[in-house]
Amino acid sequence: MSRLPNTTAFKILERLRQDRSDLENNAIDQLLTGRIDRRAFLRHGSRLGLSAALMSSALGTVGLMGLRPARAQGAPGATIRVAQITPSGAINPVTVADQGGLLPLQIVGDFLVMDGPDLVLRPMLATEWTPNEDGTIWTFKLREGVKFHDGRTMSADDVVASIKRLADPANGSNALSAFKGVLSPEGIRKVDDLTVEFSLEAPNGNFPYYVSTDNYNAIIVPADTDPAAFEGSMIATGPFKRESYTPKVGATYVRNEDYWGGPALPSRIELNFYDDLQPQVLGLLGGQIDVIQQVNVQGARPLLDNPAAKILRLKANTHRQVHMKTQSGPFADKRIREAMALTIDRQKLVDGLFQGMASVGNDSPFAPVFPSTDTTVPQRTRDIDKAKALMAEAGVSTVDTTLTTMQMQELPTLATLLKNFGAEIGININLKIEDVGAYYGDAVPGKSDWLDSEFGITDYGHRGTPNVFLSAPLLSTGTWNSANFSNPTYDQLVADYIAAVDLETQTEIAGKIQRLLLDETPIIFPYFYDYLSATGPTVSGVETTAMGQIFLNQASK
Amino acid sequence: MGLLRTIGRRLALGLLTLFLLSIVVFLGTQVLPGNPGRAILGPLADARAVAALNEQLGANRPPVEIYLDWMGNMLQGDLGQSYTFRQPVAPFIGAALVNSLKLVAVIFVMVVPLGIGAGVIAALNAGKTVDRIVSIASLSLTVIPEFVSSIVLILVFAVFLRWLPLTASWPPGSGVLVQIQHLILPALPLVIVLFGYIARMARSGTIEALSADYTRTAILKGLPWRTVLNRHVLRNALLPTITVIATQAGYALGGLVVVETLFRYQGIGNLVLTAAKGKDFAMLQAGVLTIGAFFILVTLIADTLVVMLNPRLRAGLKR
After folding, report:
1. Where is the Solute-binding protein family domain positioned along the sequence (chain A) (predicted)?
2. How far is CA A48 from CA A120, A386, B233, in A?
């Protein structure tokens, strides 16, 4: 379906297109010709650095709604009390690696780019970003007049230093896994005081995600920051300034009156650290907490459908991977892997484990939430007859195996359900449910039940792009390759996918990858579940990301 | 003299116990998988980053060197540096110990009079309804796990009635009364558990003392009942109860993890648990040794009290 506009609108659009790169104009063309929808256009356009104003105009021209208008403002001056899991260590922008640590960091800091709740990138400290033709060099324009909490002005030097620290292997950086093969310290360069250039190790069409909220270590701090001493001052550019921080107890923040985006509504933020979800839920019900960073369906049943709480729900790609060793044991035969995958009633899992707050998976990392996911690839559904036929074809009537996983949220229940599904076609599954530490072990082959088990379930957090999911667990050189999957065609397709800059090419390669993984089935992706947070009934204006960040600039109660 | 020598000997033995304990903890940390860098950066971190972080923390040295280093610093009064928080361990241990002691104090202020009172009343009414009620209550309450009673208490008093604050952490700068108000709810689950032990001990001790010869003699001498009870019965009946209370105080200090987690209280049990998970060597050692030292100390105090209250033991020491 084409959405070609009338003559006046066409003229407006022509003006918008002037001085735009081919890639950007290509995105606009895809929208006009109806090849992508509004959501995909926003996500894709934002990745290429199209401004919100331009995208809204383009959408308006073809009769679609632009970005949502700013939220209605609530009363200023509130103290917002947030409950979260206790950070596992010091609040250090380089080493923070846990759900607990990222929020104390984010409350004070800004990123170059924000990966919003809808996976649409929004400008934060960078106002524009553009790739070169092949996606190997990305140039970021910085916002002018941004001040750190100590009054100094932020410049390209601070951005270069902040990101370099993360990409340097000598620093013990948590972001190193993400930057591996993408960006090295040498590739980060200041062009002028308000321009930074990133020369990548390989073409990457999704690079802005790597310096967005998606990479929660990537907050911009002054160039001379000592990360190990950051907790004591927390100087950054965010809407709130550190007032106090007590390890294991909590933190308080006050409004930054000089914030570049204008002062936030709340005058104060209180973070309260808890070791468990249950007391957080009770705290919210008891009126002593306003926001819970993350809740899960298993632990927050008293909050669901309860007028004393509001659940904030975001579509995400957080998921579980059920790996099967492809080179040894019973699953070395791909027919048995496929048979196992065919026994699973995915909708039942979504309804039973998540009360419907999840999407069905199709045995590839391409979650429905990614704009490049090829939706024409058929969905794998339960088919016991076909599964039995595959077992017979493989020449086996029964298979004995052990499913290893850990004591975490719904994982033991999922393991039991898989055992029951497998039993229907003669796959006899013993369960081995371990402590989280024992499951991951040393995270290297030979010393890790995660990487060594023949059949196992692992948890994976949300990401803005599927790149990490495609690489680490599935590339033949992947460091988290628990299925021992090795397929040269796949490896090449992933390199092409990561390099692709325009959405059309990405979707085309995604389709090939999805079909290849359905055929090979090294890993079952049963579902992608939604990211849930909770607030008190009167709290409004809280914006969360599926990474665990909470933006409270517009919060009131 | 005899009493002092006994105390001195017990203290020396206590120090030896603590030293052995430090070796056990050290060996324990060697058995557990993982390392501090991995614990901080998580299972998915890049191996180069983990190695770099361990290097920065000094956690990649040979384990024996880490232990000897820690022991050397310890003997000079330095508890060391936490891997996890990158700060000196001492303030963490100090604050957590003070918090735990406050909670233990509130627990015992509530449970000791309640337990002893109920036990003595039951003994004085042995076989009657009051006795049966106390006996059944003391047996059944002891077996309620803290996590069950905690949740029920929170739901009733904090969520529905909203009489008491939900967490044990009080706002900074709060006065004693506000602090006590925050501690009542977390103290109750332990009061429920400990009540049974103390009441049963007090009851059986009192019954034994009531039937003893010296009590009969005192009654036959024509002493008023109150005097008989205070001087002859309770003084003898409560000696074993003191020992029970002391060992329970040690348990309460180290075993409050469930209550501390649910009520968001930064006590020493919680601190040790986190240190063990994070392979935070100095913190773990200092925490375990603090709990051990407290246990040894309260047992010593209880033993001394028992000796001082028991004329026969006192006489034995003088000989």
Report:
1. 121-443
2. 11, 44, 87
Asked whether residue A498 is domain-assigned, the answer is yes
Whether B167 and chain A come into contact, CB under 8 Å, resolves to: yes
B144-175 b/e (C-beta count within 10 Å ≥ 16 → b): eebeebbbebbeebbbeeeebbbbbbeeeeee
Q: How far apart are CA B261 and CA B267, in angstroms?
A: 9
Residue A394 and residue A514 in one domain = yes
- Residue A144: give its domain's CATH number: 3.90.76.10
Name the region of B6 (left: φ>0; alpha: ψ -120 to 50; beta: rest): alpha
Spell out the residues 6+ positions from residue A196 whose beta carbon is closer than 8 angstroms to its own: A139, A140, A142, A156, A159, A160, A163, A188, A189, A190
CB–CB contact A279 B263 (8 Å): yes
Separation between Cα atoms, residue A222 and residue A108, nearest integer Å: 13
**Which residues on adjacent β-strands are paired with residue A311?**
A534
Which backbone phi and psi does A254 adopt, to 5 degrees?
A: -120, 160
Residues A224 and A326 in one domain: no
* Residue ranges in A125-266 assigned as alpha helix (H): 156-167, 176-179, 207-210, 230-233
Whether ipTM > 0.85 holds is no
Final residue of a structural domain among A21, A44, A61: A61
Interface test with A, best of B54, B60, B159 (most A CBs within 10 A): B159
Q: Do B53 and A95 touch (CB under 8 A)?
A: yes
The radius of gyration computed from the CA coordinates of chain B, to the nearest angstrom, equals: 24
Residue A324: domain span: 315-531
Does the residue A552 lie in any domain? no
Q: The pTM is what? A: 0.85
Beta bridge partners of B117: none
pLDDT in tens, chain A (557 residues): 444 445 555 566 666 666 667 777 777 777 766 666 777 777 777 777 777 777 777 776 666 655 554 455 788 999 999 999 999 889 999 999 998 999 999 999 999 999 887 778 889 999 999 999 889 999 999 999 999 999 999 999 999 999 999 999 999 999 998 898 899 999 999 999 999 999 999 999 999 999 999 999 999 999 999 999 999 999 999 999 999 999 988 999 999 999 999 999 999 999 999 988 988 998 999 888 999 999 999 888 889 888 989 999 999 999 999 999 999 999 999 999 999 999 999 999 999 999 999 999 999 999 999 989 999 999 999 999 999 999 999 999 999 999 999 999 999 999 999 999 999 999 999 999 998 888 988 788 998 999 999 999 999 999 989 999 999 999 999 989 999 999 999 999 999 999 998 889 999 999 999 999 999 999 999 999 999 999 999 999 999 999 999 999 999 99
**Taking CB atoms and an 8 Å limit, are B264 and A180 in contact across chains?**
no
Q: How far apart, in whole angstroms, are the C-alpha atoms of residue B222 and residue A500?
A: 103
Q: Which residue has the tokens 């659940």?
A: A311
CA distance B67 to chain A (A): 22
List all residues of chain B from 69 to 88 with a beta carbon under 8 Å from chain A: 84-87
